[in-house]
Design a protein that fits this description.
The complex is a heterodimer.
Chain A: H1 2-26, H2 29-39, H3 43-59, H4 67-92, H5 100-116, H6 122-145, H7 151-170, E1 175-176, H8 177-182, E2 194-197, E3 200-203, H9 204-222, H10 224-234, H11 236-241, H12 246-272, E4 274-275, H13 283-293, H14 305-324, H15 329-353
Antiparallel strand pairs in A: 1-4, 2-3
Chain B: E1 12-21, E2 24-34, E3 39-44, H1 50-58, E4 65-70, E5 73-75, H2 80-85, E6 88-91, H3 103-107, H4 118-121, H5 128-141, H6 159-173, E7 177-181, H7 189-204, E8 209-212, H8 216-222, E9 225-230, E10 233-238, H9 245-253
Parallel strand pairs in B: 3-8, 3-9, 6-7, 7-8
Antiparallel strand pairs in B: 1-2, 1-4, 4-5, 9-10
Classes of the chains: A mainly alpha, B alpha/beta.
Chain lengths: 355, 262
C-alpha cells in the first residue's frame, strides 16, 4: 500500500517539476538574462563598471585610461570603499546606517588628538580610535536590537550626536599629517603611504581596503555568523524560529560595522593627511550609493560584498570619467543621481524574475 | 500499526497546562499524550488553545502551570532551542525558511556544521559540501523527488517544496518528536498529498508526529488518534475509524460530547 502511494506521488512530483520547467521555459532571452543576474548579484555592477571604463576610455582625450588615473581613482575610492563594508553588513540585516561618516570622523580625530595632545603612544591611540568606533557602533546596535527603534531613526539621531561629540571634542581644531609625523606618530598616517607599481600609484590604505573586502567576503559567505546576517535580513521571524538569536546578530552587526568605521577612520587620516571635522562629509550617503549600485537590496538579505566595492568604484569612475570629459560638477552629480535610480530599478526588475 | 493500541509508555505528555494572557485564558488545564510511532492530530476551533498548547511543547512559550514530560522526564523549555536540543522539532505554519538562502543553508540554519581542523576551529569555516550532502540525504530519505539541487534558493521552490524542505529539516534533526503546525494550510491538492506522504514516512521511520490541522480530510487520512481541543483543554481523544468527520466537528464545537473524554 505504501509503495503504491509513493509511486502515485512520484508522478505528481514529476508534474510539479514539469510545471516549474514550463515556467522557466516560457522565459525568452530577457527572462534568462534576468535569472542569471538574479543568481549572480555582483554581475550587473561588474558589467556597468566595465562598460563605464570602456566608454570613458574612448570618450575622452586618453587621460582616463592611463595608469596614474586608475591609481588616483583607487585612492579616491578607499575611504568610501572601506566604510561601505560596514554599511553592506548593516543593510544585509535590513538596517541602514546614517552615522557611518561621523563615526569615522570621530575616530580619526580621537586617534590624532590622543597621540598629539595627550601624548599616547601612536599604537594605543590607534587602538583607542578603533575601540571608540566599535562602541559607537554598538550603541547604534543596542538601540536597534534592544530598544527596538528603527535603524533609520537611531542612526539619524546618533549622526547628530556623533557630529556634535566630534566638534566638542576637537574644538574644531585640525591636526595635520606633518604634525603627526613630526611628533613620531607616523603610524597614524601610514595608510596614506604611497606604493608605486610603475605609474600606478596606490596607498597602503588601498591595499588594506582590498584585504578587508576579502576578509568580509569570506566571513559573510563561509561562517555561521555571515549566514545569520543574511537570514536575519531575509526574514527575521524565520531566522528566530530556526533558533537564531536575531537581536544578538543585529547587535554584533552594528558593533562589527563600528570596528570597520574605526579602521576607516585610520584610512581617512592617511588619505586626508589631516584630522579634521571637515573630512569625509559626504561619506554617509556615498556608502549607501555604493551599496545600492552594488546590487545589495535595501530590504535586506540579498547582496554581495564585492558588489559594494564595484558600486563604490562605479561612482568614482563616473565622476572621474565625466570630469576628464569636461563635464562640470553639477552635471556629474546629476549623472550619479540617475545612476542610483537606474540601479534600484534594475534591482527590482531582477528580483521580479523569480517570485 | 497504530502504537496507540499498545499500552506503551507515552513519549511526550503534558498535564494540566495553564497559560493566561492577562485576563484571557488560552489554556485551562490542557493535557496531551503522544505515543511512540503514532501520528496524533490536534484539532480545535480558533481560540481553542491549539497554538498555545503546541507553543508550550515546542518551547516557543512557557506554560504558567502544568508539567511536560519527555520520555518520563520533566522538561522545562525556555526557548525553542531547548525543545530542539531535547529532540522535539517543530515546523511552524509560517515555514521558518529564509527565502534567499539555499536549501542546504536553510536546512542547517542556526546549527551550521563547521569544517574539521583549524579551518573550522580557527577560521570558523562552515562545512558547505558536508551540509549539502546531509541535506541531500535528508531529502532523499523522505522521497522528495522534485528537489534535486541543494544550492537552489528556497524562493525558487513551490509552496509544497518549501514545506517539504521544512519537514525534511525537522525529520533530519528531530530525534524524538516532530510537530507540524498546519503544514497543508497553504498548499494545493498535489502538494498536500506530498506533505501527507511525508508524514506517513516519518511514522514509518519511527518518529511520532503531532499534526495540527483544520483540514478534516487530511486529519482523517493520516492520524492514528485525534486530540480534540476546546476552550483551552482537551475534551476528547477519538480514533478516525470510530468517528466521522462530522462527529469530530461536533465535538470540536461543543455540539456533542464523548463519554470518557478527558
Amino acid at each position: 500500500m505504501a509503495v503504491d502511494v509513493v509511486a502515485a506521488d512520484d508522478t505528481d512530483d514529476q508534474e510539479i517539476a514539469a510545471d516549474a520547467g514550463q515556467e522557466q521555459g516560457r522565459g525568452n532571452l530577457v527572462s534568462s538574462i534576468q535569472s542569471v543576474l538574479h543568481r549572480y548579484p555582483a554581475l550587473s555592477p561588474a558589467l556597468v563598471l566595465l562598460a563605464a571604463y570602456v566608454v570613458f576610455t574612448f570618450l575622452g582625450d586618453g587621460r582616463f585610461a592611463r595608469l596614474d588615473t586608475t591609481g588616483r581613482m583607487l585612492q579616491q575610492t578607499a575611504v568610501v570603499g572601506v566604510l561601505a563594508i560596514g554599511q553592506t553588513i548593516i543593510v544585509l540585516t535590513a538596517g541602514i546606517d546614517l552615522s557611518i561618516g561621523v563615526i569615522a570622523i570621530f575616530s580619526h580625530l580621537f586617534m590624532a588628538r590622543l597621540a598629539m595632545n595627550n601624548g599616547w603612544p601612536s599604537i594605543l591611540a590607534l587602538l583607542a580610535g578603533f575601540v571608540a568606533a566599535t562602541l559607537f557602533g554598538t550603541l547604534n546596535g543596542a538601540l536597534v536590537s534592544k530598544v527596538k527603534l528603527p535603524p533609520f531613526i537611531v542612526t539619524l539621531g546618533t549622526l547628530n550626536i556623533f557630529v556634535a561629540l566630534g566638534l566638542i571634542y576637537s574644538q574644531a581644531r585640525e591636526i595635520s599629517g606633518d604634525d603627526l609625523r613630526g611628533s613620531g606618530n607616523g603610524l597614524l598616517v601610514w595608510t596614506g603611504k604611497t606604493i608605486s607599481f610603475g605609474s600606478l600609484r596606490i596607498t597602503t590604505g588601498v591595499l588594506m581596503v582590498v584585504v578587508l573586502y576579502a576578509v568580509f567576503a569570506y566571513v559573510l559567505s563561509n561562517t555561521a555568523w555571515g549566514r545569520h546576517i543574511y537570514a536575519v535580513g531575509d526574514d527575521a521571524d524565520a531566522a528566530a524560529l530556526a533558533g537564531i538569536d536575531v537581536n544578538r546578530v543585529k547587535l554584533s552587526a552594528y558593533a562589527v560595522a563600528g570596528l570597520i568605521y574605526g579602521i576607516g577612520g585610520w584610512i581617512l587620516l592617511g588619505r586626508a593627511d589631516t584630522a579634521s571635522t571637515n573630512n569625509a562629509g559626504g561619506a554617509n550617503l556615498d556608502t549607501i550609493t555604493a551599496v545600492v549600485i552594488g546590487g545589495t537590496s535595501l530590504f535586506g538579505g540579498r547582496g554581495l560584498i564585492w558588489g559594494t566595492l564595484l558600486g563604490a568604484l562605479i561612482v568614482t569612475v563616473y565622476n572621474t570619467g565625466l570630469s576628464l570629459a569636461g563635464v562640470n560638477q553639477d552635471y556629474r552629480t546629476l549623472a550619479i543621481g540617475i545612476l542610483v535610480i537606474v540601479a534600484v530599478a534594475i534591482d527590482q526588475w531582477i528580483r521580479k524574475a523569480r517570485k | 500499526m497504530s502504537a496507540a493500541d499498545t499500552p506503551a509508555a507515552p513519549i511526550l505528555t503534558a498535564q494540566g497546562l495553564v497559560k493566561r494572557f492577562g485576563r484571557v485564558v488560552a489554556l485551562s488545564g490542557a493535557d496531551l499524550e503522544l505515543y511512540p510511532g503514532e501520528v496524533l492530530a490536534v484539532i480545535g476551533d480558533n481560540g481553542a488553545g491549539k497554538s498555545s498548547l503546541i507553543k508550550c511543547l515546542s518551547g516557543a512559550m512557557m506554560p504558567d502551570e502544568g508539567v511536560i514530560e519527555l520520555d518520563g522526564q520533566a522538561v522545562h523549555f525556555r526557548r525553542p532551542q531547548d525543545a530542539r536540543a531535547a529532540g522535539i522539532e517543530t515546523v511552524y505554519q509560517t515555514l521558518a525558511v529564509a527565502p534567499a538562502l539555499d536549501i542546504a543553508a536553510n536546512m542547517f540554519l542556526g546549527r551550521e556544521k563547521r569544517r574539521p581542523g583549524p579551518l573550522g576551529s580557527i577560521l570558523r569555516m562552515i562545512d558547505k559540501p558536508g551540509m549539502r550532502r546531509s541535506a541531500q540525504e535528508a531529502v532523499q530519505k523522505l522521497g522528495i523527488a522534485t528537489i534535486q539541487n541543494m544550492n537552489q534558493a528556497v524562493e525558487t521552490l513551490s509552496g509544497g517544496q518549501r514545506q517539504a524542505v521544512a519537514v525534511a529539516r525537522a525529520a533530519a534533526f528531530g530525534s524524538k518528536v516532530v510537530i507540524l503546525d498546519e503544514p497543508t494550510a497553504a498548499l494545493g491538492v498535489k502538494e498536500s498529498g506530498l506533505v501527507l506522504q511525508m508524514i506517513r514516512d516519518l511514522r514509518e521511520n519511527g518518529l511520532p508526529v503531532i499534526l495540527i490541522s483544520h483540514n478534516m480530510p487530511h486529519v482523517f487520512e493520516v492520524a492514528d488518534r485525534i486530540h480534540v481541543q476546546r476552550l483551552g483543554r482537551r475534551v476528547a481523544v477519538i480514533k478516525p475509524d470510530e468517528y466521522s468527520m462530522s462527529d469530530a466537528v461536533a465535538i470540536m464545537t461543543g455540539a456533542a460530547t464523548v463519554a470518557g473524554g478527558a
